[in-house]
């Protein structure tokens, strides 16, 4: 194992994070910019993905304990969950199901291949969980990772504006819609406008991750 | 030596989740099961929040960087994305819009009903 892959990842991510802290905009998203930059560097120098991943795999491995750690913010939000239990449960169940079915069927209608359908189905779930689901159901985890980030960027860029456009002003509804449709990046945006909506969004994201990982593997058997 | 307790708990629950998923041949990722087990342990008081809080928040705050290596794997699928650009990107945008609107309107309806 060589230390170059992980060093490259950390340096590139550090630089884009600095840029993002100076210019907070959806197009300075450090994860997406880092992925593109590293992909270009690998291509430029003719480095195979396998030899990059040989060392960067440590970072990917840490996604497992990071998902386990999500238990802490969910546990800390238990009072909010209790207060809005019905809205949260139904919002996640309805939104989470619609997210899977709409992505799957639209892609299929337009002639998407099976591996594309399986990779796009978990796209509204937080990246770490989506990668795990994609692996389990036979999708392409790398494609899922990128589609999840693009979905999050849409929510981050225009989510609150779209909710304004359809005149949704209820804070709980806004938070749930953001968390269920665009996970962490959507949550990061709505929390800037409204702390309560942000807390609900974060919970919706975590619960949608659990809901989708329970539902999707069984649903896929029916859809296929 | 405090962080070792938190890290041991987090990695321990991850291992437990992976083992359970493997042993019972479940389709849920082991990490999600580990999260549910830890949530249960916090709820029953088996694990105190203070034992894991700092370490868990460190993981959650720094999750972003961990997506980069799997994301870079996209270089191996550029041909597939190019050949399926229409289904991929149309589905991505439309599904996002539909999910946002349906979730918001569903919850708004429930809230109005309550009043």
UniProtKB/TrEMBL annotation, chain A:
Its main location: membrane. Keywords: Membrane, Transmembrane, Transmembrane helix. The chain crosses the membrane at residues 31-50, 57-76, 88-107, 140-159, 198-220. The keyword Ubl conjugation does not apply. It is a multi-pass membrane protein. One of its GO terms (cellular component) is membrane. It is found in: Membrane. It holds the Pfam family LrgB. The keyword Signal does not apply. NCBIfam families: CidB/LrgB family autolysis modulator. This is CidB/LrgB family autolysis modulator. It comes from Thermococcus indicus.
From TrEMBL, chain B:
GO terms for cellular component: plasma membrane. Its main location: membrane. It is a multi-pass membrane protein. The chain crosses the membrane at residues 33-51, 58-80, 86-104. Keywords: Cell membrane, Membrane, Transmembrane, Transmembrane helix. The keyword Acetylation does not apply. It is found in: Cell membrane. It holds the Pfam family LrgA. It comes from the Archaea. InterPro entries: LrgA/CidA. The keyword Iron does not apply. This is CidA/LrgA family protein.
């Amino acid at each position: 194992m060589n230390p170059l892959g992980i060093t490259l990842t950390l340096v590139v991510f550090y630089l884009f994070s600095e840029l993002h802290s100076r210019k907070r905009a959806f197009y300075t998203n450090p994860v997406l910019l880092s992925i593109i930059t590293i992909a270009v560097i690998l291509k430029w120098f003719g480095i195979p993905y396998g030899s990059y991943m040989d060392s960067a795999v440590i970072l990917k491995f840490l996604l497992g304990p990071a998902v386990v750690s999500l238990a802490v913010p969910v546990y800390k939000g238990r009072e909010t969950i209790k207060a809005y239990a019905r809205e949260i449960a139904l919002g996640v169940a309805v939104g989470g199901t619609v997210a899977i079915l709409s992505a799957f069927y639209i892609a299929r209608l337009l002639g998407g291949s099976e591996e594309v359908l399986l990779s796009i189905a978990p796209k509204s779930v937080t990246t770490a969980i989506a990668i795990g689901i994609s692996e389990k159901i036979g999708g392409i985890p790398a494609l899922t990772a990128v589609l999840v980030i693009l979905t999050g960027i849409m929510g981050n860029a225009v989510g609150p504006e779209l909710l304004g456009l359809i005149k949704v002003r209820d804070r709980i509804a806004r938070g749930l819609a953001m968390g269920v449709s665009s996970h962490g990046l959507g949550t990061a945006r709505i929390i800037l406008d409204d702390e309560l909506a942000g807390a609900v969004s974060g919970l919706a994201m975590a619960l949608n991750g659990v809901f989708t990982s329970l539902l999707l593997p069984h649903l896929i058997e029916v859809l296929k | 030596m405090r962080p070792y307790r938190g890290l041991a708990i987090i990695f321990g629950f991850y291992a437990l989740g992976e083992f359970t998923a493997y042993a019972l041949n479940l389709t849920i990722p082991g990490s999600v099961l580990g999260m549910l087990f830890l949530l249960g342990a916090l709820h029953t008081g088996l694990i105190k929040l203070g034992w894991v809080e700092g370490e868990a928040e460190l993981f959650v705050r720094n999750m972003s960087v961990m997506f980069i290596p799997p994301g870079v794997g996209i270089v191996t699928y550029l041909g597939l994305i190019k050949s399926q650009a229409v289904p991929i990107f149309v589905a991505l945008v439309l599904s996002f819009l539909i999910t946002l609107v349906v979730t918001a309107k569903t919850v708004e309806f429930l809230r109005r009903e309550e009043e």
